[in-house]
Amino acid sequence: xxxxxxxWNHPKTSxxxxxxxxxxxTGVLSQQGITLGAAGTGSVVTLASGLATALLGLLARDPETxxxxxxxxxKLGAWAMIALLLPLPFMGGCTATGVAQDIVNWTPALQxxxxxVNSTAALLAPADAxxxxxxxVGFDAGxxxxxxxxxAYLANPSASVLAQLQAAVVAFQQQVNASLLSAAKITNPNSxxxxxxxxxxxxxxxxxxLALVESVSSKAAVAEMAGHSxxxxxxxxxxxxxxxxxxxxxxxxxxPIEVARMxxxxxxxxxxxxxx
Length: 276
Known about the structure:
The chain is mainly α and 276 residues long. The chain has helices spanning 2-9, 11-31, 44-61, 70-84, 96-120, 129-135, 139-155, 159-183, 189-215, 219-227, 233-236, 242-253, 257-274, and strands at 38-39, 42-43. It has 2 domains: 2-84; 96-274.
């Protein structure tokens, strides 16, 4: 009776507990390769995990009234944060095929972002355009190679194709990081804003694909990838725009911006801890 009474008296906390349990269980099932069937381009398990995560985000931001609920609201927000830091939609726990499909799903956004880069030079001050063009000259080739390798991995998610994808995504990530450092040489405020917006859009997609590739790579492979990452995230963090990244991730996965913001922060933390 006490349990039923607690559920009745604290519905939000009880709902959060149930959703956390769903996220936890689906994360374990995914890591064991249990999908419970297909759901669109993913699986029932990943769909349930994503929905539970999104609902947790909504619960955590639902306003309460009255001072008596302040403590429970803070506690609920903390619980939601813990749950959201469990395996995320683009951070692992998926089958190789599901990850490969998600990587390919990101490629239209990548191609669009690179196209924006190509048209950005016309918006810059005359003195700034050559710096930007030189900094992003390899984006077309890097994008084309990454898209090709992503599609190849979807068609054949084997170790040999994965190794090529690992090399391609790290190489492109380094191009993006180098271009962000070059953007620091542009002092015109309007030009720099255009430059950072364009480069960060590409960087968000590349970082998302990198997280997906990491999720299906062995620890040894991730360490090797990080070894080829000579320009670390710490060096470019002042020029990254997490708000822009969160908006892109939220739009891609169809989830609340608060959830996406947590995912972006967590993905960056994991990448830094891995040595990127």
